[in-house]
């Protein structure tokens, strides 16, 4: 029988900063001040002395209630379409009630708010107003988007709004992930994917579909709404259109999105066209279709969506009690979202809510990285790329519509662009999941950017950093299954955690659990242990099983095979198959004392290999016991 040994040793470790120096504590929620709002009501936190509020009549719903309390005062705020980044003397503008997507010169449009009117109130007013609406069900201000209505679509009637009370998403303190993998104590993940349809696209789609609802009530020639999509846009569009009873048309690239993403527009009743092309091809088609038919374009070429998406930036500031983070990292594909975050932060600065804005990082998949290449070239002439397949399918875009918007945002906030390979993004996703999150591959792209910027020293260990998670991990279960099953070609899947198959026998289960947990004696002194290794008696290979105290528990068996042709160890991952004995060595090279290696007796269930040597305090032969573990080369 092949013999395997069980020894203790030290693994390489990531040098973490002194945790005592990472002092910044999680923020406390602000107290909600009572303010008079433009919706004609007073909102604020209730006190113990406040009278009990009577429940509304059962025949009234929240929309009826809003109608009855509609303010009669004139709305002082407004917004219009203008050419994006127009020169100072430009007078070109359009009403938001017009169906227009491009400027006269063919460029992008932007929604421009009347900042002078908004400045009639100071920053404290806006902070208090927005805070007073959090967590309420008053229509439509309980939405994380429509709680900022004056900054989004100020002129729309509340009754025209189509909302699922989106936004208000969790700002997650990634305490264990930050400390374990990055040496950071102030790392946060903004879970925009915890939303109505499972992605941040809900934030923009509520605005766009609400405006379409308004246009249809005005008898504008809009018969439906259409989009090209890599998954999440179509899910959001179909859900909001279904809620309002508006037809939706979705064009998807065939066989390039997950089934979880595909089923959403189908279930919500959208008319779905599966086209044998990539996203860029679908985008070309939808532009041509919407120019010929009275179908409203829902892609981010339409700047209305960005008005909703920018509220996530405002929400981050709210959740930090209006303290500005140092960094915000956003995955980027079509690149509208990076501009939306910039716009949200910049409006808060311009209107006096905060005194600065964070630095932004746009993270791209290496298989679809036109912005990254543009950035690395020093912002020279932009060149689209042919996007290759990526697990981050929603950002598999080689010719992004919002390239000009993204470049403008990044150049005006001293921003950075990073990229992630497929292996890097999947490993980062798995590492995040192992600390209690369940993120999408796109978040893995953003986390990879964070890893790189930390290793380069660009982001400091005490920098308050927010990673934007754009979709729910449940949309990408197949990618996670493939990763943990090691079914992805040419990928080591270093952090995979497949189930261990054990026969239905108490002893067999106990053997596996003892290896995973260590014996009682070892667990009592776990601070001294970093891993146990299974060595074969043959020189060409050995296994190591990792059990960390200050790092992640992977539960994996690593196999290293010596390659004589290049004199190095080659890493494989596998499970033990042939039955082995387990040998436990005491201390380093069989030498131990009570101070440095207090394991000078056999663990429970083991016996000395040589009792005679053991009696002479020669522990080099170690201990041994039988096991159900299996091994194969």
Secondary structure topology:
Elements (H helix, E strand, L loop, with lengths): L2 E7 L25 E2 L5 E2 L18 H7 L10 E5 L10 E2 L13 E5 L1 H4 L4 H10 L38 E3 L1 H8 L4 E5 L9 H17 L6 E5 L3 H13 L3 E6 L5 H9 L3 E5 L3 H14 L2 E3 L6 H6 L1 H9 L7 E5 L4 H15 L8 E7 L4 H7 L26 H9 L4 E5 L1 H12 L7 H15 L9 E5 L7 H8 L21 H12 L2 H5 L6 E6 L4 E6 L10 E7 L4 E6 L4 E7 L22 E2 L2 H5 L7 E9 L2
Parallel strand pairs: 1-21, 8-16, 9-10, 9-12, 10-11, 13-14, 13-16, 14-15
Antiparallel strand pairs: 1-17, 2-3, 4-5, 4-6, 7-8, 17-18, 18-19, 19-20, 21-23, 22-23
Helix pairs in contact: 5-6, 6-7, 10-11, 11-13, 14-15
Question: Describe it for me?
Answer:
The chain has 633 residues and is α/β, with parallel strands linked by helices. The protein folds into two domains: 468 residues, Rossmann fold (3-Layer(aba) Sandwich); 127 residues, no CATH class. The protein is built from 19 helices and 23 strands. Strands 20-19-18-17-1-21-23-22 form an eight-stranded mixed sheet, with helices on one face. A hairpin with a 5-residue loop joins strand 2 and strand 3. It is elongated. It starts with a strand and ends with a strand. Its cofactor is pyridoxal 5'-phosphate. Belongs to the threonine synthase family.
């Amino acid at each position: 029988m092949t013999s395997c040994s069980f020894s203790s040793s030290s693994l390489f470790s990531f040098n973490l900063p002194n945790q005592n120096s990472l002092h910044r504590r999680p923020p406390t929620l602000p107290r909600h001040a009572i303010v008079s709002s433009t919706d004609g009501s007073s909102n604020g936190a209730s006190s113990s002395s406040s009278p009990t509020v009577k429940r509304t009549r059962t025949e009234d719903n929240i929309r009826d209630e809003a109608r009855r309390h509609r303010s009669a005062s004139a709305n002082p705020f407004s917004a219009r379409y203008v050419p994006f980044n127009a020169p100072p003397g430009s007078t070109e503008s359009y009403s938001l009630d017009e169906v227009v997507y491009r400027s006269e010169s063919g460029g992008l449009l932007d929604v421009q708010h009347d900042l002078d009117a908004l400045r009639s109130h100071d920053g404290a007013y806006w902070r208090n107003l927005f805070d007073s609406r959090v967590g309420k069900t008053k229509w439509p201000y309980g939405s994380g988007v429509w709680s900022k209505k004056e900054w989004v679509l100020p002129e729309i009637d509340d009754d025209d709004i189509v909302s699922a009370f989106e936004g208000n998403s969790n700002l997650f303190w990634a305490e264990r992930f930050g400390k374990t993998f990055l040496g950071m104590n102030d790392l946060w993940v903004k879970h925009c994917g915890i939303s109505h349809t499972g992605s941040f696209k809900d934030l923009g789609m509520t605005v766009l579909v609400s405006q379409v609802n308004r246009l249809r009530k005005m008898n504008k020639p809009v018969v439906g709404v259409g989009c090209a999509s890599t998954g999440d846009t179509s899910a959001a569009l179909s859900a909001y259109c279904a809620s309002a009873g508006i037809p939706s048309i979705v064009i998807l690239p065939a066989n390039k999105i997950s089934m979880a993403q595909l089923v959403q527009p189908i279930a919500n009743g959208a008319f779905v066209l599966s086209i044998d092309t990539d996203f860029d091809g679908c985008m070309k088609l939808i532009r041509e279709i919407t120019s010929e038919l009275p179908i409203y374009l829902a892609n981010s070429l339409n700047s209305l969506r960005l008005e909703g998406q920018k509220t996530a930036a405002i929400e981050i500031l709210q959740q930090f009690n209006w303290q500005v983070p140092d960094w915000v990292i956003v995955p980027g594909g079509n690149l509208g979202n990076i501009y939306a975050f910039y716009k949200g932060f910049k409006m808060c600065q311009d209107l006096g809510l905060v005194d600065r804005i964070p630095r932004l990082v746009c993270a791209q998949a290496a298989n679809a990285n036109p912005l990254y290449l543009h950035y690395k070239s020093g912002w020279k002439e932009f060149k689209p790329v042919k996007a290759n397949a990526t697990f981050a399918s929603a950002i598999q875009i080689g010719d992004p519509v919002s390239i000009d918007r993204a470049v403008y945002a990044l150049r005006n906030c001293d921003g950075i662009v990073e990229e992630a390979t497929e292996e890097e993004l999947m490993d980062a996703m798995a590492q995040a999941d192992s600390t209690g999150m369940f993120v999408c591959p796109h978040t893995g792209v953003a986390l990879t950017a964070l890893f790189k910027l930390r290793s380069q020293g660009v982001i400091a260990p005490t920098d308050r950093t927010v990673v934007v998670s754009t979709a729910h991990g449940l949309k990408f279960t197949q990618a996670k299954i493939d990763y943990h099953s090691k079914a992805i070609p040419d990928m080591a899947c270093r952090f995979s955690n497949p189930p261990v198959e054990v026969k239905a026998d108490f002893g067999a289960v106990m053997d596996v659990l003892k290896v995973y947990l260590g014996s009682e004696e070892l667990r009592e002194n776990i601070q001294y242990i970093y891993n146990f290794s299974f060595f074969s008696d043959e020189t060409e290979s050995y296994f190591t099983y990792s059990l960390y105290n200050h790092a992640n528990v992977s539960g994996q068996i690593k196999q290293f095979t010596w390659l004589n042709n290049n004199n190095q160890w080659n890493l494989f991952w596998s499970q033990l198959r042939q039955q082995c004995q387990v040998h436990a060595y005491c201390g380093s090279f069989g030498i131990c004392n009570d101070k440095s290696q207090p394991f000078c007796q056999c663990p429970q269930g083991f016996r000395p290999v040589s009792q005679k040597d053991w009696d002479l305090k020669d522990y080099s032969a170690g201990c041994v016991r039988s096991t159900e573990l299996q091994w194969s080369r």
